[in-house]
Amino acid sequence: MPETDQNNGDRVLSFDLTVRPWIPVLRRDGSQDELSLRQVFEQAHDLRRIVGDLPTQEFALVRLLLAVAHDALGGPQDADAWAELWADENCFAPVGVYLEAHRGRFDLLDAKTPFFQTAGLCTAKDEVFSLNRIVADVPNGEPFFTARMPTVERLTFAEAARWVVHAHAYDTSGIKTGVEGDKRAKGGKVYPLGVGWAGNLGGVFVEGRTLHETLLLNLVAADTSNLEIDEADAPAWRREPCGPGGAERAPTGVRDLYTWQTRRLRLHFDETGVHGVVLGYGDPLTARDRQHREPMTAWRRSKPQEAKLRKSPVYLPREHSPERSAWRGLGALIANEAVRAQGAEPADYLRPGILEWVARLVTEGELERGFLVRARIIGARYGTQQSVIDEIVDDHVAMAVVLLHEQDRRYAEQAVAAVGDADLAVNAVGDLATNLARAAGTEMDGPRSSARDLAYGLLEAPYRTWLAHLADTDDPYAQRADWQQQVYKIVGGLGDRLMTAAGDAAWQGRIVQLKHGTEWLNSALAGKWFRAALYKGLGRPDSPDMPPDADASPALETTVKAPA
């Protein structure tokens, strides 16, 4: 229930987010709880992480907490100031005073300045819409996989607060009902202006052992290279309340972007909860070339945009692929392509600024080389002209921060090369499946795809374990050789099972066309080529089970190398 205040005899509802529980958390002992903003910072040492209703909600809430921390602590200005915070168990003590000073902007139900909302927001017909418009786990027209079937009729105030934050970060695009005062409305509608700001990103942040560590690890200093933070940078609650419509302006820094008001909202509620919403477009923001402002995503160079805009380089956020596990994309997280000789072609990819920041901390000795973190990736994939959320990506890679060290790139190079070892082996087993299918005279694409998926699945857990312990050794090259042996054994075993399952037709074989002519292809020859590919890429295993001349065998002309 909300708090009530007496004002000229009328009951005024209040839900103060600084003191009322609304943020779901996972404690270090495994129990779950809901805490207020104050409590989250006071108890951050005892919390493992935020647990939102969706992973994207967790990402949005972490960014909100970071905006509070940046503003309350006034920085940090540089790595030395950050090191003082890292060493101080009570470094978040100023947050309580800060929240008290700004608590008037954190009341979800305030009549004049409701949190992340626009007071008095309404349509020409004073319509109130279903909460489905802000609750992202209700699929449009697909109610079969949701716990809120078929519509969201009511939300608690705590739930509503979380979905308000999420709407600004991840709301879908599409045609929205125009609100009174929005000059962009035509015929009562505002045409698509894009998704919420975080919806453009392949979200990345760094997790420590506790939420206290996580917030500090992502608290980038103002003097971070390639990151621009203006002195006037401020979060939404230190700016003038938003009116209807939106204003085009450039972001001032991380506090601004972490709380960017991409929507205009107004909740409708009574004493027992929220029952409706008015939702419209807010401040537009293009994703192009924001790499100096937004640190929580990787970036990719866009040649089509360069041709269109006649400028170079042009960078766009590098979104996550739901089909690709985080460990397979490790290179995008730790490889630093931006470090190039003067005058060289601009990098095709830029790693996230958050990881650039952690790289600085380990390189300057503020973090021990073996300190273990998780690179967490979270993102949304939109469908049908960005009007619905189709999929959500949530994954992580545990690694020692030495992989980000700028002066010692050996560990990062071997970690990325080890992913290449896995890709090579997966391609080899995909070729084997193709060759077995061709030897049996059956369809080839399905078996190849299935074999590759299975191989990646078998390699994922071993790679994650290997990576987490890579810093335990002084010789990353020896660790890489050990990994290659693991890959040979795992994928070699899978190949054996595929050959056994191929059946009599593949064992007998048939004549196929090769580059040099025809050959009788059967499972024995397919297996010989498979072992040759593994040996060539990974080296001979400890107990070789392949003929000495296997690496000389030809490959099939029709074998297509699928992208890793």
Q: Describe it for me?
A:
This protein is of the alpha+beta class and 564 residues long. Among the domains are: 108 residues, no CATH class; 142 residues, Topoisomerase I, Chain A, domain 4. It has 15 helices and 17 strands. A three-stranded antiparallel β-sheet has the order 4-3-5. α2 packs across α5 and α11 runs parallel beside α13. It is globular, with a radius of gyration of 27 Å. The two termini are 52 Å apart. The C terminus is likely disordered.
Helix content: 25-40%
Strand residues, percent: 15-25%
Q: Looking at CATH, which topology of the domain at 411-552 would you report?
A: Topoisomerase I, Chain A, domain 4
Structural class determined from secondary elements? alpha+beta
C-alpha geometry: globular
Helical segment tally?
A: 15
User: How many whole angstroms does the radius of gyration measure?
Assistant: 27 Å
CATH class of the domain at 411-552 reads Mainly Alpha
- Low confidence ranges: 143-147, 543-564
* Widest sheet: strand ordering: 4-3-5
Largest sheet: 3 strands, antiparallel
Protein name: Type I-E CRISPR-associated protein Cse1/CasA
InterPro entries: CRISPR-assoc_prot_Cse1
Organism: Streptomyces naganishii JCM 4654
Pfam families: CRISPR_Cse1
